[in-house]
């Protein structure tokens, strides 16, 4: 709608945008409401689960120090221009991992990618990344979970970085007792029919 000056001027709506608008309408209709302050006002110390994620040219990593659990997913067709997508997909995958326990309400996910932090905190992205946000929101709404995505400097995210690069020997030496697993990213939701 940017640049429009006539209040009743018609705007073109793409098929993808129409699907996303239907998705939000259906979610709002089915919702019992969200208390925004309850969802936002909690500290790191109040988190039920803390996870760390990273993506590299060859894979994605999730590190959960409290379990201790390390998960790796290879990237089959590495494309350096898609690293932001994989950083965000690692966050969605970590959220999917957290919900699988069915016992965590407040989850913090650290990533060293500031664009990913911004995307999840603003719920604003380019259209190609909206399926990531829709999937995350579906998980959060269905499980009644609260999520905070926070930035961590890359130098402090060394275990998730090692996992994403398939350097399990580093994980074993720095996080003794950690179990190593492979994961498959969740299927991404893209429209109201996937709810």
TrEMBL record:
Q: Give one GO molecular function term.
A: nucleic acid binding
Cited CDD domains: RNase_HI_RT_DIRS1 (cd09275)
The stretch of residues making up the signal peptide is none
- What's the protein name? RNase H type-1 domain-containing protein
- Say which species the protein is native to: Tetrapyrgos nigripes
């Amino acid at each position: 709608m940017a640049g429009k000056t006539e209040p009743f001027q018609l705007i073109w709506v793409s098929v993808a945008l129409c699907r996303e608008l239907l998705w939000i309408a259906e979610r709002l209709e089915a919702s019992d409401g969200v208390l925004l302050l309850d969802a936002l006002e909690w500290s790191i110390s109040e988190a039920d689960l803390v996870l760390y994620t990273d993506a590299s040219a060859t894979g994605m990593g999730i590190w959960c120090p409290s379990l201790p659990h390390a998960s790796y997913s290879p990237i089959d067709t590495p494309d350096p221009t898609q690293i932001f997508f994989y950083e965000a997909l690692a966050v969605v995958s970590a959220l999917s991992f957290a919900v699988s326990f069915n016992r965590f309400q407040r989850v913090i996910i650290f990533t060293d990618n500031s664009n990913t932090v911004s995307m999840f905190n603003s719920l604003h992205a380019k259209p190609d990344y909206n399926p990531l946000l829709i999937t995350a929101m579906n998980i959060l709404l269905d499980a009644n979970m609260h999520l905070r995505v926070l930035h961590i400097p890359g130098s402090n995210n060394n275990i998730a970085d090692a996992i994403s690069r398939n350097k399990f020997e580093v994980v074993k030496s720095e996080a003794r007792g950690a179990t190593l697993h492979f994961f498959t990213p969740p299927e991404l939701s893209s429209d109201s029919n996937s709810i």
